[in-house]
Amino acid sequence: GGLHKWTISRPFLTALLRACVQVLCEEKETTIKKLENVEIESTTSCMLSTRSTN
Asked: Rounded to an integer, what distance in angstroms lies between the CA atom of residue 27 and that of residue 30?
């Protein structure tokens, strides 16, 4: 009985898992992009400060 129910719900579980992975990947990408932007901004400001000092 239980095994039959599992077979029916398996595609749903797979889809749910894929959706979760997709969301996590998207979140990770945006976080990486944010970190890169911060890095670029800090590098630019650092370069600007050294230019003004020199």
From this structure: 5
Rounded Cα distance between 14 and 16, Å, is 5
User: Which 3 state secondary structure label does DSSP give 43?
Assistant: helix
Print burial letters for 5-39: b (CB count within 10 Å at least 16), e (below 16): eeeeeeeeeeeeeeeeeeeeeeeeeeeeeeeeeee
pTM for this model (two decimals): 0.41
Which tens digit of pLDDT belongs to each residue from 19-39? 988 888 888 888 878 888 888
How many helices (H) and strands (E) would you count in the chain?
1, 0
